[in-house]
Amino acid sequence: MANVSRRNFFKIGAVGAGMIALGSTAANADTKKVKYDEEYDVVIIGSGFAALSAAITSAEKGNKVVIVEKMGRIGGNSVINGGLLAVVHSPKQKAEGVQDSVELYMKDSMKAGRNINHPELLKVIATRSNDALNLVQKCGAKFYDKLSHLGGHSVPRTYLSANGSGSGIVIPMFNYLKKMPNVTIKRRTKFEEFILDDTGSVVGILAKEKYRFDSKLKDDDRENKTGKEKYYKAKKGVVMASGGFSRDIFYRKQQDPRISDDADSTNQPGATAGALLKAFEVGAVPVHVSWIQFGPWACPDEKGFGAASNFNINATFRYGISVNAKTGKRYMNELADRRTRATAMFKLVNDNKNYPINICDQTAVDNIIPELAEKALKAGVVKKYNTIEDLAAAYGIPLKELKETIKQYNNYVKAGKDPDFGKPVDKADGVQIAKAPFYGTKGVPKLHHTMGGLKINTKAQVISTKTKEPIPGLYAAGEITGGTHGASRLGSCSIPDCLVFGMIAGENI
Amino acid sequence: MANVSRRNFFKIGAVGAGMIALGSTAANADTKKVKYDEEYDVVIIGSGFAALSAAITSAEKGNKVVIVEKMGRIGGNSVINGGLLAVVHSPKQKAEGVQDSVELYMKDSMKAGRNINHPELLKVIATRSNDALNLVQKCGAKFYDKLSHLGGHSVPRTYLSANGSGSGIVIPMFNYLKKMPNVTIKRRTKFEEFILDDTGSVVGILAKEKYRFDSKLKDDDRENKTGKEKYYKAKKGVVMASGGFSRDIFYRKQQDPRISDDADSTNQPGATAGALLKAFEVGAVPVHVSWIQFGPWACPDEKGFGAASNFNINATFRYGISVNAKTGKRYMNELADRRTRATAMFKLVNDNKNYPINICDQTAVDNIIPELAEKALKAGVVKKYNTIEDLAAAYGIPLKELKETIKQYNNYVKAGKDPDFGKPVDKADGVQIAKAPFYGTKGVPKLHHTMGGLKINTKAQVISTKTKEPIPGLYAAGEITGGTHGASRLGSCSIPDCLVFGMIAGENI
C-alpha cells in the first residue's frame, strides 16, 4: 500500500461503487492487506464541541480514542463562537422561575427552521441538554449568572460561557481530556478517506499527518499536497465531527451563487466541505445541504465573528434597536430568528449599500457581562457616544428621525408591545434607550452555520441511502449532520446539538 | 463477474472510496476484465424529454445509442405532464407582438427561484429554447395556436402541446427515434451502477434487464430483486436523464419530514432517487437537493397530475379565481409562482381542512383548447354549474361573499389592477367571471418537481467534488440536475431545461 502515491490515490478515489463492485473479490482481499500504522477503538474527526464530547464519553468507558484535527489548533469554530448553550429545564431556569419544556424548545426550533426540522432529533437535543450542561460543568466550564434570552426563543434558556466565548467551554473539555491516558490528540492531521471492510462497515481511516493547512490556497481540500499518509484502525467506530462548510468557497457557491468568494464568515478557515463529501461517497444521505445561515449580528469593521457579534447578541438586539442609517428608522424585529433578520439586513446592505446601525444605552451594557463591551470597545467596532446627537452624527443618521424612533421604541417597551415589528419587548426587562453614554456599531450578516449535512438517527449513527439503516461503524455529530435545525437554526442551539449528539455517539460506540 | 450476486454487489456497493483506494491495483486490473454484454457509444438513462433529446442529437451525429428505461413504458413524467414549453424569441411571440428577452426569462426564473438559481445554466436554457422548439417540431410535435401566459412569467412565452399534454411532444420524438437504426430502446431495464476506468472516467454501466418495477413496494429501489445483470460499455459517455425524486418516500422525507408516505404526487411511480444517489457516490456535487416543489393546480378528487391540473393552469388561474370555500374570499395571487401559491393553499388545506375552490366562467373555457375542459369534465374533477348560486351551494361557499368577491374581481380586471393580491389581471385578456355556465374544481398542491440534483456545467457535464472539473464520460440533463430552477421553478420551464441540456449533452459527447 505504501506505494500508492497521493496522486494515484486521488485518482482511484474518483472511482466509484461501480468499478469497486467489479473489483470486489480483490477489494475484500485487500481489506486484510491494509497495514495499519496505529490502532484505536474510536477515531474522532474534528476537535470542536461534538468531537470533544464524543471523546470524553467514549474514553470514560475505557475506549482508546484518537482525535484527528487538521488544523494547528484544537477547537474549530467552537473555540471562537459566542459560548451560548440553550438548556431546557436547567437549574438556572428553575432559579429564575422560567417555565420551559421540551415541546416549547421543539416548537421554537421548528418555527425558525421553517418546519422542515427532523423532530426526533430535536427532541433528543432538548431532552438531553441538561446532561450536556452537566458534562461540560464536570470538566470545569463556568457560566454567567443570568440566562440570556436570544432571538426566536420563547423563554430565556441560554447559558452564556463566563468568558463570553466558546473557549470557556472548549478549554476545560480539552484539559479534561488531556488528563486521560487513553486519549490521543493529533493536530495537523487530516482525515482523507474511509476504510471499509467487505461488509461495508467503516473500520478505519486514511489520514495525513503533518498536514499544513494553507489559508492562502483558494481551495485547501483539493490543492494542498502536504502531509504523510497513515492508516488508523477504528475497532469500534469513526465519529464524524468535523463541522460545517461556511468557508468552502466552491461548495457554498453551488448552494447559493450569490455568495462571493470573498464573502466574510464568522468561521475559522478550516471549515470546508471535504469530510462531508467523503461521507456522501460511502452513501450517507444528504439532508438540507442547500441551507446556509448568515449570522445577523456581525460587524463589517472587523473580520470573522470578531468582538461585535457577542455585543449585539447580548446587548443591542435585546436591549436596543437596529436602524436604517439613511432613515433613522427601525426595519426589523431585533429578536426575530436569524434568517428573518439576515434577510432584512441584506435588503439594506445590498440594495441600498447602507450598513444598519445597532444601538443601545448604558443600562443595556450594565446588564451584560463587562468583558463583552470591553472587548468590543477595545477592538474599535463598538463606539461610545455621550449623546444621541453625537451618535447620529458619527453614522450620518438623520437626528430628528432617530430621536423619534427611540422615543417610539421606548414607549413600546413601556407598553410591552411592538406594533411595528413584533419584537418581544417584554423580554427587554424594561430597559429603554435613555441613559448616556450610548453605544453604536455597524451591522452586517456573515456566513455562520451550514444547516445541512449527513442524516443521523437518534443514536448518532449515519444513515445509508442504500439500506436506510445505519452504516456500521460510522457516527456523526454537530454541524456536519443535517436535519436538527431545519432551514435556519436558532442562536445557542448549535452547542447543545454538538454536545448532545457527540455524547450519544460516545455512549453508543 | 457473472458470479457476483446481486446481494454481494450491493454489499460491495456500500464500500466507498477508501477501500477501493486500497484495492487500486486490483481494481485497475479488473477494469480490463469486465466482460461487456453490449457496446454503445452513448448510454442514456431515462426516457423523458432530456433523454430523448440527448438520444436524437447524439444519434444524428452517427453515434450508437441505447436508451435505458426501468419502467414498462417510455416517457417518464414527460408523457403525463402539461406539455408546456417556455420559449424566448419564439415565432409565436413575434406573431403576437410579445417583447421578450433572455434577460427577462432569467429575471423571472431568478425571482421564483429565490435568487439561488445558477445564472449560467439559466442563460443557456433561455438562449437555446428556440433550438429545442425546432428539434421537437422537426420530430412532428404540434402546438396550440396561442401562447399561454403562466404564473410568474412577465410575458406570454409558453407553447402548449396541441393535445394539452407532454405526450404530444414525447410521442413524436419517440417515433422519430424508432426510425433511427443506430438507436436501441430498452424498457424494463434499470441502471444499477457506474463502471469507471482507472482514471475515474465513466466507461459503462451495470444494468438489470427484465426489471419489473413494483409500485406495491414501499421502496422499489431497495426492495426489488427482479432483473438480470448486464454490462453495457459506453465508449463516449453516459447521460443521466432519469428525472427527479418526487415519489421516493424515504428520500423526500429526509428533506421535508412533513411529507407523509401517502402524500400524492403528480409524478409517475418510477420517480425515485436511486440514480441521483449513485451519482453522489462517484463524487457528483449535490445542489439544492432540499428544495421540493408542489404543483398548486392539482385536485384532491383524482390521483396524480390528472385532468384538473391543466384546466387550472390554463383556465381558472389565468381567467378566474381561487377562493377559500369557508369564506368565499380570494386568498392569493392566482398567477404567483408555484411556491407562493402552494404555501397559500397549504395554509387552507392543512390549517383549516378546507380545500380551496378554483372558479371560472364559459368565456375562460372558450379561450382554452377544448380538450382540456372536456377531459376534466369527463373525469368529474371539474364541474359545470348554470349559476353562481348552484356553484356556491355545491361547495358550501357563502353565496353573498362569493358574489361580492366575483364582483370585486371583475372590477379589478376592468381596472387592470388587483390591489388585494397583485395578480397581473392585465394578462386575463379582459375576461371577467360573468358568462354562464360556471366551472368549479377543488384545489390541492401535490408533489411535482424536485429542484435539486447534480451540478452540471453549460456543456451538460457532471461536475466532481474532487476536482471541481467534469467527471469524464458523465453527462446529465433535466430534473436530475440542480441549479437551473433555484428554490422554485416556474411552470413551463422544465421542458426547455430538459430539452436544451439533453440536446447539449448529445452535442458534446
Briefly say what this structure is:
With 509 residues, the first copy, chain A, is α+β, with helices and mostly antiparallel strands.
Structural description of this entry:
The structure is a homodimer of 509-residue chains. The first copy, chain A, is α+β, with helices and mostly antiparallel strands and 509 residues long. The first copy, chain A, folds into two domains: 41-291 and 451-509, FAD/NAD(P)-binding domain; 295-446, Flavocytochrome C3, Chain A, domain 1, CATH 3.90.700. In chain A, 37% of the residues lie in helices and 18% in strands. Chain A has helices at residues 6-13, 17-22, 24-33, 49-60, 91-96, 102-112, 119-139, 167-178, 220-223, 249-255, 274-281, 308-319, 338-352, 362-366, 370-378, 388-395, 399-415, 494-508, and strands at residues 38-45, 65-68, 84-86, 158-160, 183-186, 190-196, 202-209, 228-240, 286-287, 292-298, 321-323, 357-361, 383-385, 438-442, 444-450, 453-454, 461-463, 470-476. In chain A, helix 4 (49-60) packs parallel to helix 18 and helix 7 crosses helix 18 (494-508). The longest helix of chain A has 21 residues, at 119-139. The first copy, chain A, starts with 5 loop residues before the first helix and ends with a helix. The model of chain A is unreliable at 1-30 (pLDDT under 50). At the A-B interface, helix 1, helix 2, helix 3, strand 6 and strand 7 of A face helix 1, helix 2, helix 3, strand 6 and strand 7 of B.
